[in-house]
Amino acid sequence: MQRLHQLQIPFADITGMFLTHHHSDHVVGFIDLWLTGWIGRPWGKRSIPLKVWGPEGTRQMAEHLPLAFATDIRVRSGNYPAQGVKLEATEISEGLVYDQGGVKVTVFEVDHGGEALMAFGYRIDYRGHSAVISGDTTFNENLIRHAQGTDVLIHEVTMAAGAAVENEEMIRRIGNNHTFPQQAGEVFARTKPRLAVYTHLLLFGSARAEDLIPATRTKYQGPLEVGEDLMQIDIGEDLHIKRFAPSEGGQPPD
Question: Which domains does the chain have, with CATH numbers?
Answer without folding.
Answer: 1-92 (no CATH), 93-254 (3.60.15.10)
